[in-house]
Every structure is written in C-alpha cells, then in structure tokens.
Design a protein that fits this description.
Radius of gyration: 19 Å
Shape: globular
Largest sheet: none
Oligomer: single chain
Distance between the termini: 36 Å
Number of domains: 1
C-alpha cells in the first residue's frame, strides 16, 4: 500500500514530534553537546549532534530495508552494548582527566593549552556518529518506529518520510540546545566553568555507562 499526499503531513508531524521527544531527555549525547558548546562554541557541540543524526539515519535505512533484524541477535546486541559502555567509560576518563588538568591550571594561573583536536567540530561529528552507531537501543527504537503498523503498511517510502522527520526533529532540538549553550557561554565563560563542565560531564558519562551495563546484565 502506498501513502498519498493526504497522509504526508501527518507522517511528517508524527516523525518530527517523535524525534523531538526522544532527543530532549538527558543522555550522553546531550551532555556532551552542552559540554562542548560551553568549552568551544556552537559548532563543537552541534557537530556532535549532526554526527549522531547521521548515525541514526544509517540505522533507519538499515531497518527500513529489512536488515535491522540481523542486529537483534542477543550476541550482537551484547557486543554493541559492551562497546557503547566502554565508549562512555573512555569519555568519562577523558573528561575527568581534563577537569583535573584544568583545575591545576586554574590554581596555578598557568596559561591554558590550545584546544585539542578532540574538541573540534569535525571530531565531535565523528564522536556523535560513533555513539549513535554503537548504541544497541537505537536499533530497538528504529524497529519500533518503522515497524509501527500505521507506518509499515504504507510502504517503504512512508518509512523513509517518518525516519527523515524524526532526524529533522532531533537536529532542530540539537540546534536550539547548542544555540542556548552558546548564549550561556557568552555570559558565564570562565576557566572555572569549563572545569566544572568537564567534571560534571565525566560523572554523567560514568552514570550512563553504569546504566548501560545494568541493562546488559538485566537482559
């Protein structure tokens, strides 16, 4: 069954609302967007959002074409879950170490080092892409969205319309979040602020990693 022009707007509205609703709750990607935006500005944070949206687009295509079931195998999901948790732990280490070094510089009034490549917009894009691709729960999300009877019965084109709207919704949320963080940075930017942002984000990443491990253990 093919969808018509009369069903296009409802599909777009449904997808956009869904993308917005799943993008705004606190999570590792939002936490890193905020930290990067506070530390290096708009494109450092929004680049990560665009990378995550690209990863989601990849999963959406895979699921829409019917290959998503290949990644529902328990072993595959376990491997991806472990990879995701390890990535979060690695990020936590990087951020906490950065907070510690920043604290030492702040105390000694030493000259801060030049921004690392890790903080660039390009690095943020690939980090967001990696975080999205290694998350096994992204597969479950897209299976639920595209496998929804109201969508799947309308055919492949309708699935791509919904998926595109979901991604646009998430990207718009990331745009607003990154912009708000930049405004916040302009008002409160300081060495102490960056140390606090790195330290808090590192602790958040440890929390998200622990929650991922709990999900893996709990099945």
């Amino acid at each position: 069954m093919d969808f018509s022009a009369s069903t296009l707007l409802p599909l777009l509205g449904y997808g956009f609302a869904l993308g917005w609703s799943v993008a705004w709750p606190p999570g590792p990607i939002n936490a890193e967007i905020v930290r990067r935006g506070l530390a290096r500005g708009f494109w450092s944070g929004y680049g990560l959002c665009l990378g995550a949206c690209t990863g989601d687009a990849g999963w959406a295509v895979v699921v829409a074409l019917g290959a998503g079931v290949l990644f529902t195998d328990p072993t595959t999901r376990l491997v991806m879950g472990i990879a995701s948790a390890l990535l979060l732990i690695l990020l936590a280490y990087v951020f906490l170490r950065g907070a510690w070094h920043g604290l030492n510089l702040w105390r000694t009034s030493a000259t801060p080092k030049a921004p690392a490549r890790f903080e660039s917009g390009r690095a943020g894009y690939f980090l967001g892409l990696t975080m999205a691709l290694t998350s096994p729960w992204n597969i479950a999300f897209w299976l639920a969205v595209i496998g929804r009877p109201e969508t799947s019965q309308l055919g492949l084109a309708a699935s791509f319309v919904v998926a595109s709207a979901v991604i646009v919704g998430a990207a718009v949320w990331g745009l607003l979040l990154s912009g708000a963080v930049v405004i916040l940075r302009m008002k409160f930017a300081s060495a102490a602020w960056e140390v606090c942002a790195k330290g808090f984000t590192g602790l958040l990443m440890l929390y998200f990693a622990a929650r991922s491990i709990a999900r893996i253990v709990g099945g």
